[in-house]
Amino acid sequence: MNLLSIGASYRTADVAVLERLVIPESSVPDLLQRLVAQPYVGEAVVVSTCNRVEVYAAVSGFHGGLGDICNVLSEHSGIPATELAGHLYVHYGEAAVRHSFRVSSGLDSMVVGEAQILGQLRDAYHAATEVDSAGRLLHELMQQTLRVGKRAHAETGIDKAGQSVVTAALDVAAEHLGGDLTGRSALIIGAGAMGSLSVATLTRSGVGPLRITNRSHDRADRLAEAYGAIAIPFDQLDEVLREVDIVVCATASTEPVLTRERLERVGKDLIVLDLAVPRDVAPDAAGLPGLTVVDIDSLANSRRTSPAAAETAAVEQIVVAEVDNFLGWLRGAEIAPTVAALRTRAEEVVSAEMRKLMSRRPEFTEEQRGDVSRTLHRVVQQLLHSPTVRVRQLAAEPGGDQYAALLRELFDLDVPLATQADAVPEIGGKA
To answer: Which residues are catalytic?
Structure first.
């Protein structure tokens, strides 16, 4: 099995494509089960955020795995596979490991260095664990991915400014409002993870008074209480829209919350930061007088928040070193079935010779037979110990995959293909 990552992000797809691809939390278990039911997919983890949808998989063949995953994503999104292919990036083998570590470190984020992706990756891994779609390979990859992300944030200043998609959107809002948001009234629609982040960020920015609304009023009330904001019943949304300067949309709704008709009734200048995918603002509302909409597409094009080059370079160095470490573990893991097959072959030879000996020497007592058997096994184990320890060490080094192949050839070992690394050359798509 080998690693394959396939996805679409703000780099390769606009929000119209991403909102079709996005996978609601409630749909993740079913999608994971559909993925691992495919012929070439043995393990799967799905990451779905406001600006990326990715599948990390352990596959038995590159082309087969690619086709299986693309077909599942196509069926889920309703986008024909031929059309979807133009929006996907593909990473295989070492490139998949590197991509995973860059994502967790914030290097591949819309706002470079943002830390929210770590929580999103953790949730994705937990979801895969819940339905048992992550096996040994993805367990190791995701655990190391989370560790590398934490290390990058702890050892560098990649996120010292506390930047996020929310802060980037607020920067755009500040430009439209003369550069200062202090005292500007705001409404947050949605009380989930992104809504909570929005409330915290707006509070630090001096925006206020803050109002929060959500279809579940209890969640809005709890979030408002935590930050000294005001919880508003959802049925009062139209009224509140006419009273605020800024609206932050961050719901999980599959339909627009702010329709053209609703926004037409506002009757005043309004800045809406639409951070939801699918979009909370109806596309046909664009161009309404006095309405400014900042969405994922406009943020992706602005690229206005970026850490110092030195911090980015420091994280890149961490990623390079950690990729080498993971590949070393992977090479060592790949030889384990071959070493096990060698030891099994040795045990079979000992057992066969014991049967021959006992047939020729029926006068041996049970005690004598036991002594001979134990002696033969000790001799074989001692002979194999040093070579197998050394071959594991050599296999962990660059180019170490040749040692497993050499052992299989020398001893004519039959190791199931599912335990060996896929031999298709590494392929990295656009990212």
So the answer is: 50
